[in-house]
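Record DUF983 domain-containing protein, 118 aa.
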Amino acid sequence: MAAPSPLLSGLRGRCPNCGEGHLFEGFLRVSPRCEACGFDLAKADSGDGPAVFVILIGGFLVAFGALFTEFTLHPPVWVTLAIWLPLTLVVCLGLLRPFKGAMLAAQFMNKASEARND
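=>
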């Protein structure tokens, strides 16, 4: 049986080692261990990388959409805010978990670890 792709497993929120166990305990908290294979996930840390990518991608999509709407339809300011502020929240929260899973899977694929001097 072929090993699952760690990157696709991370995008789905699954363990990058086996592809079956859950990667997250809550919305963004990484599980300490995979319940399927026992892989140690506690040392995995994605830092601010996923948030930066989500802000850049989500910000571009929403800003482009808001500017396009503003210049083509000329809606009142309250309509623009009522549409694009909630959409910003949905886009950013929707992308954050898959991006964090992909960053953790990339660490697993590249066998990344923290540098130590001891």
